Amino acid sequence: MTASAPTRRIAVIGGSVIGLACAWTIARVGLADEVVIHEPDDSGPDGVPTSGAAWVAGGMLAPFSEAWPGEEDVFALGVASLRLWNTFLADLAPHTPPGREIRSATHTHMLAVDDADARDLEMAMSWAEGNDVVVVEGVKGSDLRRVTRRELRAAEPSLARVARAAYRMDSEGAVDNRVLLAALARACRAEGVTWVRGEVGSLDDDDIAGADRIVLAAGAGSAALAGLPIRPVKGEVLRLRARPGCEDAPRGVVRAFVRGRPLYLVPRDGGLVVGATQYEHGDDRQVTVAGVRDLLADAETIFPGIGEYELAEMIAGLRPMTPDNLPILGADPDDPRVVFATGHGRNGIALTPITAATVLAELQNRPIPDAARAAGAGRFRRG
């Protein structure tokens, strides 16, 4: 298909954050006469799915906080997406529900509370700060910096004085995942996107086979539909609501290693999101006693005032993980009519803008972003 060929219908399989962002991006440039999202779950506000990983997510924009030596391609993709978020949010602003804000935090602190965790944190942050992608992608190296205990206390006075090491990143932060989903659904409707509410059993289903192009954004469900190496990994999250007299929640995102376990605290309007456990349990969405216990114990180590908050929601989601922690983006090498936008693991929200840009470039027969090239489906054998 050439860039000038008419496109009558584009089918997007999956209506969570990635599918919504892709559909909106496609529709707003008028690439097709009809853009249709195939998503059976309309259980959330504005008809968004509550069964997807994005409904459960912390919404962190965190390539530096997630940085780890050996994951150069994952880091590069995250940094490239981080650069796109300001424009993405500005374009989405007219569709945000009244009285809500998508952006919930504009900076991140990374902490370690014992010597072993401090060594790991310092190794990861030194690697991230010195990585060439910081220069290539235009993210200021000075945005990532080690901070003293006094500086941490001034920035986040509600935190316990337990940090053996602390870093700050001023280009990260978080978005409110549920406000983001609602805004994207509204934006899609404003551009004429429609929904088909039914399960997709195969790419050969009549509704799908009739499309000129197909965008596969079905998360863990993409494995069965296209033979992709994606597995569901369970993550548990707690949503807390402030009560009168509670200590103020942290002002920004707080990431920590507590006795070797990762933890995040993400501010929300009127509360806090706490995560995240990770279990290789297959299709299991049950919240466990052990998971809640560990999250609350680790969170109280960092933020002692958390005990006065209301435990408003306990929820688990399934992150669609690949073997190398990169998503699968771009054209299917076996069927160029299909474009993949799936397998984002724990970074689905963070990678939303770069994914939408990659899908649009593929559909327009333009070069995809350099950082997305390592995420192509050709790196895996299909089966």
Describe this structure in words.
- This protein is α/β, with parallel strands linked by helices and 383 residues long.
- It has a domain at 9-105 and 172-229 and 323-379: FAD/NAD(P)-binding domain (3-Layer(bba) Sandwich), CATH 3.50.50.
- It contains eleven helices and 16 strands.
- The chain has an eight-stranded mixed sheet, with helices on both faces. It has a six-stranded mixed sheet with strand order 8-2-1-9-16-15, covered by helices on one side.
- A hairpin with a 2-residue loop joins strand 12 (261-268) and strand 13 (271-275).
- Helix 1 runs parallel beside helix 7 (177-190), helix 1 (17-28) packs across helix 11 (352-363) and helix 3 (72-92) crosses helix 11 (352-363).
- It is globular, with a radius of gyration of 20 Å.
- The protein starts with 8 loop residues before the first strand and ends in a 20-residue tail after the last helix.
- The model is unreliable at 135-142 (pLDDT under 50).
